[in-house]
Amino acid sequence: MTFRNEDLPALFHHTDRAAVSRQRESTRATRAQLLFLVVAATAAALPSTPRIGSLELFGLVGVSAYAGVLAVGARATRRRARPQWQLNRSAAEFIKSLSWRYAVHGLPFGSDAEDPELAYRTRLEAGLAELRKMGWEDPRELGLVPRDGEITGAMRRLRDLDYQVRRETYVRDRLIEQRNWYRRRTEASRRATALWSWSIVLLTCLGLLFALVGAFGAGPAVRVSGLLSAAAAAGIAWNEVRRHHPLIEAHTLVEQDLAAMMVVMQTTITEGHWPSAVYETERYVSPQHTDWLARHSS
Fold it and tell me: What is the residue extent of each domain of the chain?
């Protein structure tokens, strides 16, 4: 049997799409603000320009760029794109993890559970209630997702299969798939880190060169040095926003934990210890665990 994301509840799919949409919105807003600031610095660094009436063209460009920074920031604050991105991502991963635990008899939905469906719905509502307290917008309350689809037919079919099939399905479609995802994200972060690091070094070296030239009294060189400094600062800010370096370490550690758990699940794990092993694996892949590793990485 295979169990894919398509087999998860509709509530997961809605929150996952909302998280992706809000992430893109938040990222675009930050990128636009940084670009506007670089444009403003460029306009300030350029020499005198043709005038439009009593206004200088590049001065007007600078004013427009700073106004753009304020407008984008105000819209992002009003839309709460970043908080809603994080809340929807937490909701999506919580639903996904809970669904997998129910389907393969992970804690607290082991084979000895008296009413696993009731326990699943109780846990689901309790977790989502905590997210609503923090401002998460429940799509069920807006009529966007029906309330009667928390447990899918595929989840019930997988739960009804014997232990060997459930174990093989979980290892292949959840553990290995998640491990590969962390590996891909690590490689993408490494490439992005290398690109931005070298770009920042290049801009800083050019800024140093023009600053040395400006030290001997060359006026235009001083202006170019300021522009390069603004561009380098924007690159550093963008790199920090994307958190490439801490995520490399966090994702690498999670991948190692999943690799070790995969060996255990395929060799020494017994059916009696299976529910706790699934619970531990789901703890490794939770966003909270990744964020904790990223914050405490060296």
Answer: 1-161, 162-298
